Amino acid sequence: MVKIVADRERCAGSGMCALTAPAYFDQDDEDGLVLLLADEAGDDAGEVADAVQLCPAAALGFA
Fold it and tell me: Which residues contact 53 (CB under 8 A, 6 or more apart)?
């Protein structure tokens, strides 16, 4: 398992993470910023890695 981190202060609210890995990321209904739905990536860590790479604000990563 790989730990996922999301920095809401860096988030620009583009939603790429929620589109790319909806099991792990969503957007807050109030401010549109990233919501982390799971803090560890399992067998589908590649999907999360794609979301990390696509984030225009570099608000996502692995710890």
Answer: none
Q: Measured between alpha carbons, how far is 47 from 30 in angstroms, rounded to an integer?
A: 26
Report which of 60, 57, 36 is spatially closest to residue 49, judged by C-alpha positions.
Answer: 60
Residue 55 · residue 62 · CB < 8 Å: no
Q: What is the pLDDT of residue 1?
A: 87
**Which tens digit of pLDDT belongs to each residue from 16-27?**
999 999 999 999
Residue with token string 């399992």:
42
Question: Whole-angstrom Cα distance, residue 1 to residue 57?
Answer: 24
∠ CA 53-20-17, nearest 5°, is 65
Name the stretches of the chain with pLDDT < 70: none
